[in-house]
Amino acid sequence: MIEWVLLILLVIVLIYLFWKYSELRGEIETRARGIFEKWRTTELETQANEKAQLLFQNWMREEERRIREDAIKKSEAVIKGKVTEHLIPFFPDFSYNPKDARFIGSPVDLVIFDGLNEGELKKVVFVEVKTGKTAGLSERERLVKQCVENKNVVYEMIHRKSEKEE
Asked: What pLDDT shows up at residue 7?
């Protein structure tokens, strides 16, 4: 009989230990899953941040390169325009004598004294040289054009006395 009691006690202890083992195993799995999820979230965020940083740096490099190329193109266009303004009197399709042209630069590029070199001044021409597809007049250039078209042009002579005459 003692053997049966011991056997029953042994079975009860085994059941109790199995039950505790199951509880601990579930708790360990839950903790492990929580630790894994925390690690996974942190790792994904880290990878996402690193990828975002790389993408942003690549975008910045590309954008800087594009801006530099655009600046170079615009600078080249400005330089070509300035050179053209100076050299236009020597182009074959320039309809005036280059010796009659005077470069001013702003607010008009050239003033042409048509016929002055031959001693017979026919007219004074204000010329604005434009290069490029969308070249339009600036506000200042438009004002000069309107003034000339409205014949608001005057010739003045300023005589300054020299120091000896004073």
From this structure: 87
